[in-house]
Amino acid sequence: MKFLCVVLVDEDLAAAMTEADWVRIGKESHDYDTELMARGIYLEAAALQGRKTARTVRVRKGDAMVTDGPFMESKEALGGFILIDVADADAAMEVAKGIPMARLGAIEVQPVLEF
């Protein structure tokens, strides 16, 4: 079963990190991805640039409107994702608990709707 682990980052916690902190958590994240690959459950992962680089597109009645910035105001920002393929929701939760970025916010886990 595929699950998307959405990385949500608390912007206040992230802003308080030093460059050395970022290097350390980046290495931990890379190492965890490598572990998931070795276990055969890693499908894809990516980190995102800061939310100030985001743009939002809305289409209403055939008209598209593009605005700068993220859609929602929130203390937590979308920081990235990890797509995994595991046996069930319990296994997905165990993977999510190990994601280093969880220390900076939260990991939202959702099953992928397969057609």
- Tell me the β content: 35-45%
Query: How many discrete structural domains?
Result: 1
Rounded to an integer in angstroms, the radius of gyration calculated over CA atoms is 16 Å
Residue runs with pLDDT of under 50 for 5 or more positions:
none
Give the N-terminus to C-terminus distance in angstroms: 13 Å
What is the N-to-C succession of helices and strands? Answer: EHHEEEEHE
Largest sheet: 4 strands, antiparallel
Total number of helices: 3
Mean pLDDT: 92
* The CATH top-level class label: Alpha Beta
CATH architecture: 2-Layer Sandwich
Tally of strands: 6
Shape: globular
Strand order of the largest sheet: 2-5-1-6
Q: CATH fold name, please? A: Alpha-Beta Plaits
CATH superfamily: Dimeric alpha+beta barrel
Percent helix among the residues?
25-40%
Structural class: alpha+beta
Describe this structure in words.
With 115 residues, the protein is of the alpha+beta class. It has a single domain, classed as Dimeric alpha+beta barrel (Alpha-Beta Plaits), CATH 3.30.70.1060. Helices cover 30% and strands 38% of the residues. It is built from three helices and six strands, in the order βααββββαβ. The longest helix has 20 residues, at 19-38. The model has no long low-confidence stretch (mean pLDDT 92).
Topology (SSEs and partners):
Layout: E1 2-10, H1 11-15, H2 19-38, E2 42-47, E3 55-60, E4 63-68, E5 76-85, H3 89-97, E6 105-111
Antiparallel strand pairs: 1-5, 1-6, 2-5, 3-4
Main features:
alpha+beta; Alpha-Beta Plaits; four-stranded antiparallel β-sheet; globular
Q: What is this structure, in a nutshell?
A:
With 115 residues, this protein is an alpha+beta fold. It has one domain (2-111): Alpha-Beta Plaits (2-Layer Sandwich).
